[in-house]
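Methods — Computational structure assignment.
A single polypeptide chain was analysed. Its primary sequence is given first, followed by the predicted tertiary structure written as structure tokens.
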Amino acid sequence: MFTLAAIAQILIALAFVSIPLVRHRFGGDAAAAADRELTRQGVRPAVLAENGLRFDAGGHETWAPVSFAALMLIAAALNLAGSEWGQTLSWIFQAIILLANALIIYSNLTAVQSVTAAFAKKGDPELARIDVRGFLDAAENAFPRWVMKHLTYARHAVVFGGSLLVLIALITA
């Protein structure tokens, strides 16, 4: 059963690594689309970079998913080795992974509200003029359709389904 848990954990790790890979490949296109939308709105595109908003694989878009992938690979290696630490850490790491993925979904669903609130908090009149939904939609539409429609849902299915398999394997062991 621990081999099944380890395979699921490796698949979960790959699902998390897909985030910075896609951002690296298509983030420049998303940033360019957001810049065009801001120009259309009469806002300087540089205001995004000046306020730390990025669409590439930099910052937390890399370190967070890579860290989650590393947790899964550590647990998978220990489970494959038959170590009791694999079981213990799997319980802890799967809880972290499930919470992280739920937060990712929440963040995606509330992106417009969150970015609008963050812009308002800055008190910058230029940021306040931005139609946040418009510029986020422009950035999202720059990613290939398969990324937003298929890869995103597949990643969530792998993370949640794989975590369920890991927990079942741990319970039945």
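Note: The mean pLDDT is 92.
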